[in-house]
Model the fold of this input.
Amino acid sequence: MGEGVPIEEKARRASAPVRDSLKEVGLPAPRWGLVLGSGLDPTLSGDPGSVSMRWRFEELPGLRPTTVPGHPGTFEYRFIEGAPVLLQRGRIHYYETRDLRSVCLPVLLMRDLGVGSLLLTNAAGGLNPSFHVGEFMLVRDHIDLIGAGLLWELMPAGADIGFPDLSGTYDRDFGDRLLSLAGGCGVRLREGVLVAVPGPAYETPAEARYLRIIGGDAVSMSLVPEAICAHLWGMRVAALSCITNVHPPPAGIPLTHDEVLKAAGRSAAALERLLRSLISTEGSA
Done:
């Protein structure tokens, strides 16, 4: 990815084709960014009759193509409830590249285009015994076991690279708004702490018990690096995890990625209702 190139320049290069395309047809910059995780990529078609544009990751300088089923690896510009939105369908995971810059560059592309409010979604395994498959968890905090060893390389130029404050990574008001809307959209929205692990293996029973003991309510292999990066770059961040399996799993039934995708797909319609309600009530925040 051009190791000597500052991350700001990588973001500018990656976003340039999108910016040029929007400018060419006179479309406004997106103000909302939505990342749709495993099995959730069918969510959100554009408003009827509205303009839409699409770019594959590999068409944008510096972005890697996705390799995981359920992650198309595209950006789509759409009007949703009248607001200009940049949808990221699928993501790059740390286990695909062992490179957090590849994971986070799409988020910085969004920020470079003017996105101020970012909503991240993913699939996650439930650690909290009260959670059920098909519910969503509002991420209030996280435990990062991936290890942001390259965190300093993802910070804006001139930022304090010594001791960044991550206590406000997930915007409290943004999350409260989602909670207030969820019931009216038929979404049971729980709250909790997301544990991020490197993957790609699913957790052993002992590991799942450990993650619960240290404070986790759900576990995933994604989302947290992007949330950290977006927060460091001044974006307003909220995150939703779709609970696609629970620990401990049913005896003798192995967990597969295909089952995760199916479970998330069954919840996609509920997620769309909630996201549309959020955007319609907040407009081009």
Helices lie at 7-24, 94-97, 100-113, 172-182, 205-213, 224-232, 257-282. The radius of gyration is 18 Å. Strands lie at 32-36, 52-56, 74-80, 83-89, 117-126, 136-144, 189-196, 218-220, 236-246. The first strand starts at residue 32 and ends at 36.
